[in-house]
Amino acid sequence: MSDRILDTISTPEDLKPLDGAQLRVLAKEIRDQLIDTVSQTGGHLAPNLGVVELTLGILRALDTPRDRVIWDVGHQGYVFKLLTGRRDRFSTLRQYGGLCGFPKRSESRYDVFDTGHASNSISVALGLAQARDARGTDEQIVAVIGDGSLTGGMAFEALNHAGHLGTKMIVVLNDNEMSISENVGALASYLARVRLDKRYIQLREAVEGSIAKVPGIGAGLVAAGEAAKESFKQLVVPGMVFEELGWKYVGPINGHDVQKVQDAITWARNAEGPVIIHMVTHKGQGYAPAEVSPDEFHGIAPFEVSTGKVNGAKGGPPSFTEVFGEAIVAEAALDERICAITAAMPSGTGLGRFRDAYPDRFFDVGIAEQHAVGFAAGLAVGGRRPVVAIYSTFIQRAYDQIIMDVCLQNLPVVFALDRAGLVGEDGPTHHGVFDMSFLRAVPNLTLCTPADEAELVDMLHTGLQTDGPFAIRYPRGKGVGVALPREPSVLEAGRAQVRRTGTDVALLAWGRMVGVAERAAASLMEAGVSASVVNMRWVKPVDMETVAWAAQRHDLVVTIEENTSIGGAGSAVLEALADMGLTPDVMHLGVPDCFVTHGAMNRLLEEVRLTPSGVSEAVLGRLQRVSESEGERHGQTQSRRRAR
Ligand SMILES: Cc1ncc(C[n+]2csc(CCOP(=O)(O)OP(=O)(O)O)c2C)c(N)n1
Fold first, then answer.
1. Is residue 452 within 8 Å of residue 323, measured between CB atoms?
2. 3-class DSSP state of 454
């Protein structure tokens, strides 16, 4: 029998009788559990280690699930999951069929909102608070947002709106000075001043105390009116920026002290209007390797607990991300106009070397994808050659800026869209399966996808030589192991590469699906079906000539893309066929019209049948149906003839 306190916590109510000593033991048990599980499943370790006491304090002060907690991004919600009835399933975290790595309403009634993309929690909380007021109920609404996520425009927009409405709600600002990497921006510097400058706090206490005590002066100051009071406050009150926006500011508070967290929330729940509580925490708290490298342990693959080293064989081909990171440094050496922009993900997008080599040409704009694209547009108008490196899923935030700020004006901005396609354990909030559909609708944009890492180098080079918007989408994970070009080449836009010529079926594939098509062709061959394989390379412009060749020389044309099957590369082929008046038998394979769950990448590719066997079975099934229906037609014709 376990004697862990953690094993006695079935609901947050079980936390309430615990005393300070028991809470400290529980916090240690939670950290051990987090480390143990995430070392096996991989996941967001450092953010969760940093919010153990903060989560305990919130849950003790509130009455959940009646009171509502919204976790911004949601990657720091593991502790919440452990304490809200999901401890027994915690080992299934991020596994196929197991607990999601982010809040999920379908998983628990404690999860109020499915999050994954940053900076929307205050908006959602405000909506919930307005709905509560309209209903006339009195539950508390709490958004927990990190200092990194507070850099996102949506968070500012919501602060602005809520401050104006004066709606009762609580924002817990979890300030650990880190986004994934070090947090950036003027607001981060402001928070640092508030956090670090003890003089603010001492001065505030001293001055507030003395004003109250000295007869005449304190009263005189108040009598001098609001203006004097406000300018005086500005000097001495931390968090004045928030106060000016209509929020009550509380803090800074030690977010590793459960009692202090609990007291602050309890105070805020009785206050009028919107309250922001500034809590200071340490990312990675309690596990030395994560404390030393909180960025590496932000999201980590399975690792060895004693050393903090990631498991698995080193070596093998470099990842697409690494190849991009090297290629852009090489390009920048030859063209001083080239700039690189990341939205808070310098290492995730492979820009670490660029940042070190060209600090003046490197911009981390914070979690601000819309601004990143608008900013790139300005750079381009000013004669620079910006490369915006953003994951496929997060560029969704900047669709309007892509259309209006970049493409309408045909500006030379290169979009390097990493993590395109399925991404595995992070699940539906992170799969990059829409970009081909929403990007190919935009005029002036060229859109391509490399089948291997060598092509990525050439495509980046091609993009930088192109006088107009250019997007490259490439997948998470390792390349296929081909040699990289010594000198990158310019590829002809809209020219596909035929990799194998057959007679029965044409497999037209994009990106990582080219390798899948090649393997499918090999197994089709064994089944007596001869397949051509084309690396289509370009989504826009699509290669009309090759599409026509495929249609005219094969019984069946099959399109294969790691993107939603709606409106993507396969649709481009269908449109091309329609435009050319060609009507071959076509099969259209892609991610089905649903949100694909989380789990190991291979498992997910299997689920959507984008594997060699999935493709070959689909092709054989179709050929079989075609021959059966032809047989039927043939049979009908025969019997009609006989009847005549
Ligand atoms: C729109 C969007 N862009 C980028 C990301 C990737 N991302 C996930 S967490 C994170 C940093 C969040 O920092 P913070 O809010 O301070 O939380 P912490 O991890 O420090 O607790 C980033 C950039 C995202 N989830 N959503």
1. no
2. helix
Q: Which two tokens stand for residue 183?
A: 């947090």
Chain segment 284-324, per-residue pLDDT in tens: 999 999 999 999 999 999 999 999 999 986 789 999 999 99
Q: Are residues 140 and 281 in the same domain?
A: yes
Rounded-to-integer distance, Cα 87 and Cα 107, Å: 13
Q: Cβ(68)–Cβ(46) under 8 Å?
A: no
Q: Is residue 188 part of a domain?
A: yes
> What is the best residue among 367, 370, 396, 425 to mutate for testing ligand 1's pocket, by most ligand atoms within 8 Å of CB?
367
* Percent of the chain clearing pLDDT 70 (strictly above): 91
Decide if 248 is catalytic.
Answer: no
Query: Which ligand 1 atom is the nearest neighbour of the CA of 430?
Result: 25
508 and 403 within one domain: no
**Is residue 266 domain-shared with residue 374, that is, in the same domain?**
no
pTM above 0.90, yes or no: yes
Domain co-membership, 269 together with 335:
no
Expressed as residue numbers, the domain containing 453 is 320-473
339 within domain boundaries: yes
Overall number of domains in the chain: 3
397 labelled catalytic:
yes
Based on the fold, state whether residues 461 and 541 are members of the same structural domain.
no
Q: Tens digit of pLDDT for each residue in 39-71?
A: 999 999 999 999 999 999 999 999 999 999 999
The reply to whether 90 and 14 lie within a common domain is yes
Domain membership of residue 487 (yes or no) is: no
**pLDDT band with cut points at 50, 70 and 90 for residue 624:** confident
List, for residues 208-250, the tens digit of each pLDDT value. 454 445 444 444 443 444 444 444 444 446 678 899 999 999 9
Is residue 456 located within the same domain as residue 588? no
Sign, CA dihedral 168-174-178-180, equals negative
- Ligand 1 pocket, CB under 6 A: 47, 73, 75-76, 117-118, 146-149, 174, 176, 178-180, 283, 298, 343-345, 367, 369, 394, 397
pLDDT at 503: 96
Sheet holding 385-391, edge to edge: 362-364, 338-342, 385-391, 414-418, 470-473, 446-448, 538-540
- Atom 21 of ligand 1 has which residue's CA nearest to it? 47
Which entry of 283, 385, 476, 512 is annotated as an active-site residue?
A: 283
Question: Residue 470 and residue 450: Cα distance in Å, rounded?
Answer: 13
- Mean pLDDT to the nearest integer, 508-521: 98
- Tell me if 1 is assigned to some domain: no
Say if residue 241 is in the same domain as residue 360.
no
Catalytic residue among 132, 384, 397, 440: 397
> Choosing from 296, 331, 369, 518, which is the catalytic residue?
369
